[in-house]
Amino acid sequence: MTVTAYSFTGLSLRIATEAIAQTVTDWYDTNARDLPWRQPDASPWSVLVSEVMLQQTQVSRVEPAWHRWMERWPTPAHLAADPPGEAIRAWDRLGYPRRALRLHACATAIVERHDGEVPDDVDALLALPGIGMYTARAVAAFAFRQRHPVVDTNVRRVVARVVEGAADGGAATTPADLRAVEVLLPDDHEAAARASVAFMELGAMICTARAPRCAACPLTTVCAWRLAGSPPADGPSRRTQRYHGTDRYVRGLMMAVLRASDEPVPLGRLDEVWPDAQQRQRALDGLLADGLVRRRGAMVTLPG
DNA sequence: TACTCGTGGCG
DNA sequence: TCGCCAAGAGT
């Protein structure tokens, strides 16, 4: 049975899509990873922190950092009471340290606007620093058990393959992606929240980008991409991202120096990280503009 | 829209 | 080995 085979009426399409969500949820119930932010007693704040850390960073690297973070800053008020530089330092090597700065600003905004409680509606979440279309819905669904399409790269890929028969999700088109996922969600809010995390888990563990484990997939007999013979992606391959030697790389070197020091660092220390003076200047200017670094005369520090 | 923004795991 | 990719957000 395929979705398309049932799509000659709206009613039967509805039945087929609900079967997909139920199948994936059943799979999730026995195959999901035991991640701490998925525990029933995980606080909304701890869920929010996990979602920000997981933006472009793998679970294996996030988990230890998340434990340390939650022990030190169990509520938004705890984080807001410390300087943003401490958040950047604790972020360690998770990457994209602007996320740490925004998470600190997010905690401050939660204290100021929401009396220290993580808001439970998508619009209020969207208004917080560092919380975008994905994270707002993820927090609403996973922390507050609401029914929202939660569309990350995993879900986009699963839907592209199972429903559309494509190898990948192609370019992100947020409104269309939200609609495509919305029709797959059960009406019940708790069931929808479970289906949302189940779709993500399937994309992360089975329906992966490079070597999908279709033999272990609960949707293998239904998947449009599989039934079409798993054709390769047709669009242009995405531009390859290099890293070593880029401005981003030099920024990373400078941030590592600052994280390692409890005291202001002489500018000369940053000159030692990379030979190209022009590139160093660009990197430092960028860090200053982002607010990740403060300059006081010939010294630089993390923001106090 | 397309680009920038870290760091590391993995096939 | 090395290029792809990773629970995106902001501009």
From TrEMBL:
<keyword id="KW-0408">Iron</keyword>
<keyword id="KW-0479">Metal-binding</keyword>
<keyword id="KW-0326">Glycosidase</keyword>
<dbReference type="InterPro" id="IPR000445">
    <property type="entry name" value="HhH_motif"/>
</dbReference>
<keyword id="KW-0411">Iron-sulfur</keyword>
<dbReference type="Pfam" id="PF00730">
    <property type="entry name" value="HhH-GPD"/>
</dbReference>
<dbReference type="InterPro" id="IPR003651">
    <property type="entry name" value="Endonuclease3_FeS-loop_motif"/>
</dbReference>
<keyword id="KW-0004">4Fe-4S</keyword>
<feature type="domain" description="HhH-GPD">
    <location>
        <begin position="53"/>
        <end position="205"/>
    </location>
</feature>
<protein>
    <recommendedName>
        <fullName>Adenine DNA glycosylase</fullName>
        <ecNumber>3.2.2.31</ecNumber>
    </recommendedName>
</protein>
<keyword id="KW-0378">Hydrolase</keyword>
<keyword id="KW-0227">DNA damage</keyword>
<dbReference type="InterPro" id="IPR023170">
    <property type="entry name" value="HhH_base_excis_C"/>
</dbReference>
<keyword id="KW-0234">DNA repair</keyword>
<dbReference type="InterPro" id="IPR004036">
    <property type="entry name" value="Endonuclease-III-like_CS2"/>
</dbReference>
<dbReference type="InterPro" id="IPR011257">
    <property type="entry name" value="DNA_glycosylase"/>
</dbReference>
<dbReference type="InterPro" id="IPR003265">
    <property type="entry name" value="HhH-GPD_domain"/>
</dbReference>
<comment type="similarity">
    <text>Belongs to the Nth/MutY family.</text>
</comment>
<dbReference type="InterPro" id="IPR044298">
    <property type="entry name" value="MIG/MutY"/>
</dbReference>
<dbReference type="Pfam" id="PF00633">
    <property type="entry name" value="HHH"/>
</dbReference>
